[in-house]
Amino acid sequence: MSNGRLTDWARSLGLSTPIVCAPMGGVAGGRLAAAVSRAGGLGMIGMGSAGSVTALERELGALGDGIGAGGAPFGIGLVAWGIARDPELFERALAAGPALVSVSFGEWGDAHADASWVERVHASGAIAVTQSATVDEAMRAAAAGVDAIVARGREGGGHGDHQHPRDALLAEIIAAVDAPVLAAGAISTSSDVARVLDAGAAGAWVGTAFAACDEALTPPPARDALLRGSAADTLVTRVYDVALERPWPERFPERLLRTPFIDQWHGREDELAGDAEARSAFAAAAAAGDYSIVPVDAGEGVGHLTRVRSASEVIASLR
Ligand SMILES: Cc1cc2nc3c(=O)[nH]c(=O)nc-3n(C[C@H](O)[C@H](O)[C@H](O)COP(=O)(O)O)c2cc1C
Is Flavoprotein set as a keyword in this record (predicted)? Predict the structure, then answer.
């Protein structure tokens, strides 16, 4: 058990527990972020593939009193190709006064061509964080001046480069970089948190465990799917992205809870891309919120979710 212990990194951010609620598009809005930050962790607003200035403004408005600007800190998580597409979203995020800004799912070229965001985040007074799936990526991020790196294991929910198991990746990244390293991927219990802290992590970056919280944006039927799901029901696939023509780079498929639609098309993504009828039927199901067809993103720890809890209950169960 971690017994509520604190790391230097968490203390430097003013947290009372080294737990970050991962940015999750469509799940981690202002209400969840505020609830996590009020409970002593770091809450984050996630802007995923559907991120926009309008969506960010709405979620910033939902933070409520006492968060940011002298109150409890919060963070904002963005995807690299999303801010390349919509630079105003990045500007608005910096102007909101987050303590931490994460930009993930970009490329770290040899010349760090896309790393200018790191300096911009620093100039705003926030710390810059990114998720890495390999040691090489983590070293490039550290060389670009990123303040903390999230070692994201293949067990994790949502999009990512699902190559290495969390604990092995964490140990290798800690050995390779001087920056604080957080751990991500199926962190679901206080023993998971204790294990990654014992291994030297500066904190735990936790997604799925918060996804069924009552403060999350998760629609009720998606919540039910999370409560029913287990690790064996998760799959890493591009079917959802192809079906909705979402512009996620191919090297970042997502871990999600399978549905019959996903099973039907997994491995046949090219065929699905050419099947306008199947895609439009899926788009209609997505618009109607039919989660018997539409999958829900989840990591391999999803089986630990058995009831809807508040964010503070989840924090209490992790610390
Ligand atoms: C529903 C969901 C949505 C996600 N959306 C984002 C996102 O918008 N931006 C991001 O950087 N990471 C996103 N992630 C990945 C998380 O940052 C993190 O890597 C992951 O949740 C960790 O694994 P876990 O879910 O098993 O705890 C998402 C994860 C989930 C489950």
Answer: yes
Q: Is 253 in the pocket of ligand 1 (CB under 6 A)?
A: no
CA angle 18, 22, 24 (to 5 degrees): 165
Q: Does residue 152's CB lie within 6 angstroms of at least one atom of ligand 1?
A: yes
Name the phi and psi angles at 127, rounded to 5.
-95, 150
CA-based nearest residue to 35, from 50, 24, 45:
45
Give the residue whose CA is nearest to atom 23 of ligand 1.
156
Is position 65 within any domain?
Answer: yes
CATH number for the domain including 21? 3.20.20.70
Site to substitute for ligand 1 among 24, 49, 205, most atoms within 8 A of C-beta: 24
| Residue 77 structural domain | 8-217+311-318
Provide the number of structural domains found in the chain: 2
Each residue of 65-92: pLDDT tens digit?
999 988 999 999 999 988 888 999 999 9
